[in-house]
Structure formats: structure tokens, C-alpha cells
Write a structure and sequence with these properties.
The protein is built from eight helices and 15 strands. By secondary structure, it is of the alpha+beta class. The chain has two domains: about 10-195, Fructose-1,6-Bisphosphatase, subunit A, domain 1 (Fructose-1,6-Bisphosphatase, Chain A, domain 1); about 205-335, D-Maltodextrin-Binding Protein, domain 2 (3-Layer(aba) Sandwich), CATH 3.40.190. The structure holds 6-O-phosphono-alpha-D-fructofuranose.
């Protein structure tokens, strides 16, 4: 029997049928994000040619100045969602404050938080990069959305997803009803269902972390890493393979499909003020939501990422994400050794 061809549009529509009270706004919002992803994917695939084709500093076909890819991605997502009346407010890694809906345009019941192009420093090395997004229901009742509508814990997400711009462009999303992956067929401009109902494999293969930072890790994280490598005599285990790209979406995506753990622990360069690098609201939170709906787990080393209520938009956090048993082991090492 030939494989059924299911576009992301059809899949989202079928997902909506599971919610009788759905009004279609949520479905249209997910469509809009998929469309923005196709536009960003097109520009990303040309990124390497900007210098060669002399595009930098010139204007593109829309008459817009050729801009940095992360600025372009940010503008694309904002423009795609400014005027539709589906959102009350947005928050982006690229913007210092909340992004209000322009005066004179209707506000809606959803909130979009996003990192438009994470890992963009890897573009020149042609490594995979990604967009991460989360969709909340607004908390305020009406009128312009506020920062309060954005500062919600990951557990309150209505949907989360990411797009990975790599050897192929993939969009992975969940509305809490399974995690589903779609691969872009650029010849027709459609995301086609390629990974239905993703579950993190029970047997992990990889661990992903920047061991160049080991000097600034806590004792517990160092011991946890030795355990992953099969070098803990007290708790012997089969060594995992090390894989690290330095692009969160790419590292997370591999562990989601193959099984493993990604971690970016606290940095104790200043022992009195340990710091996380990754952002809670639009990086760790949406990926934690996806991980949990694929049978995995995400923690800051002490508690579930999904239970942390952000105090500020750009709050940073430590992140351990992937197979639940590996993440929980990290928590145990940190509880015992700090
Ligand atoms: P490091 C990319 O700059 C990023 O924000 C994430 O995509 C990635 O996981 C992390 O930083 C890599 O950081 O310190 O290992 O280069």
C-alpha cells in the first residue's frame, strides 16, 4: 500500500477535530507558523550565497535590504502574526520587551513566544539551526496583551514546536496530543507528515553537552557525565556516545529521535552566582513540553522545567532534557553532590 500523503495543514485540521469547542483560530495560528517557517527556510538555504551573489547590503525582491538571517526570521514571524487578530501579544528572543499588536488591529486569545533563529552563529559553518515556538492562551481577559500573558510556566502551553533548517527542513509540533514531525518538500512547498507520534526511544544512544565548560560545572554534573561515559564504578553502565553540534534545536532533535540527553548545566565561573545560558520562556519551556509529550522529561537540575514560572521574559536556566531516566539521574547526582 503506498504511504498516505498528509500535509501539515490537513494534520492540524484533523487535530482540531479532537477539540469540539475549537474555533479554528488555533488551527490558523499553527498554519501561519508553518508558512513563516517555509519563508525562513527559503532564506536560510540561500544564506551561504549572500556573499557569493553579492546580496549583502543589496535589496531583495521585496525591495527589502538584505538583512541578517535572525533579524529576517524575527521580522517574518512578527509580520505573519501582527494583523490576523489571533494573538494578544508576542515575545521574541530578538526583542527586549513584549511585542504588542499594532494600534487599530484586533487582539486575539493566544500568546506566541519564540526564538526566531536559534544557533544562528552556526550558519557560516553550515550547521543546522532552528526556530522554537510556544503558544499560550492569554491570561488577561481583553484588550492589549501584557507581559503577564507571556510569563506563564511551560505546563500551561497550548502548543509548542520547532523547525530545524538542516539537510532537510522539518517542523515538529505538539498540541498535547502526540508529537508529530513533518518534512518540507520544497518542490511543492508543503510540510509532509514524516514522523507521526514521535516517542523518545527507551534505549538512549547519545549525550550532548559542551565539555569545554566542564571546568565550571558542579561536582554533581561532572560525576553525572562520568556515569554517562560508563566510568562510574559504583554505578556501571554502557557508555553513551558523545554528540554535540552547539545548536540547541539540532542537538535536541537528534536525542528526540534516537534517544539520549542534552544538557547545558549552570556555569559556576562565579561560584557565588551560578548562571544558566539557555532561555526558559522560548527555548527550554517549549522543548520541555515537546519532550514530555514524547515520553521524556526536562529539568533545570532540581525540578521540571514545565513548573518554573518565569519572572522576566529573557530569564535563563540550566537545562537537562531527553530520556526521563537519564534526566532524573542527573537530578540525583546534583542532589547528592551539588
Ligand atoms: P555553547 C546557540 O548559541 C545556543 O544558544 C544554543 O543553540 C546552543 O545549545 C548553545 O547556545 C551552545 O552554547 O556554549 O556550547 O556554544
Amino acid at each position: 500500500m503506498p504511504e498516505e500523503i498528509i500535509t501539515i495543514e490537513r494534520h492540524i485540521l484533523e487535530q482540531e477535530r479532537a477539540y469540539p469547542e475549537a474555533t479554528g483560530v488555533f488551527t490558523s495560528l499553527l498554519y501561519d507558523i508553518a508558512l513563516a517557517a517555509k519563508i525562513i527556510a527559503r532564506e536560510t538555504s540561500r544564506a551561504g550565497l549572500v556573499q557569493i551573489l553579492g546580496l549583502a547590503g543589496k535589496t531583495n525582491i521585496q525591495g527589502e535590504a538584505q538583512m541578517k538571517l535572525d533579524v529576517f526570521a524575527n521580522q517574518t514571524i512578527i509580520r505573519m502574526n501582527f494583523y490576523t487578530g489571533r494573538l494578544a501579544v508576542m515575545a521574541s528572543e530578538e526583542e527586549p520587551d513584549i511585542i504588542p499588536i499594532p494600534e487599530g488591529y484586533p487582539t486575539g486569545r493566544y500568546v506566541l513566544v519564540f526564538d526566531p533563529l536559534d544557533g544562528s552563529s552556526n550558519i557560516d559553518a553550515n550547521a543546522s539551526i532552528g526556530t522554537i515556538f510556544g503558544i499560550y492562551r492569554r491570561r488577561t481577559s481583553a484588550g492589549p496583551g501584557t507581559v503577564e500573558d507571556c510569563l506563564q510556566p511551560g505546563r500551561a502551553l497550548a502548543a509548542a514546536g520547532y523547525i530545524i533548517y538542516g539537510s532537510s527542513t522539518m517542523m515538529v509540533y505538539t498540541t498535547g496530543n502526540g508529537v508529530h514531525g513533518f518534512t518540507l518538500d520544497p518542490s511543492v512547498g508543503e510540510f509532509l507528515l514524516s514522523y507521526p507520534n514521535i516517542r523518545i526511544p527507551a534505549e538512549p544512544k547519545y549525550y550532548s553537552t559542551n565539555q569545554g565548560n566542564e571546568k565550571y560545572w558542579s561536582e554533581g554534573v561532572r560525576r553525572f557525565t562520568r556515569w554517562l561515559q560508563g566510568m562510574d564504578e559504583e554505578n556501571p553502565r554502557k557508555p553513551l556516545s558523545g554528540r554535540y553540534i552547539g545548536s540547541l534545536v539540532a542537538d535536541f532533535h537528534r536525542n528526540l529521535l534516537e534517544g539520549g540527553i542534552f544538557y547545558y548545566p549552570l556555569d559556576y565561573k562565579d561560584p557565588s552566582n551560578p548562571k544558566g545560558k539557555l532561555r526558559l520562556l522560548y527555548e527550554a519551556g517549549p522543548l520541555a513540553f515537546i519532550a514530555e509529550h514524547a515520553g521524556g522529561y526536562a529539568s533545570d537540575g532540581q525540578r521540571s522545567i514545565l513548573d518554573i514560572v518565569p519572572d522576566i521574559l529573557h530569564q535563563r536556566t540550566a537545562l537537562f532534557i531527553g530520556n526521563r531516566d537519564l534526566v532524573e539521574m542527573a537530578e540525583r547526582f546534583i542532589a547528592r553532590y551539588g
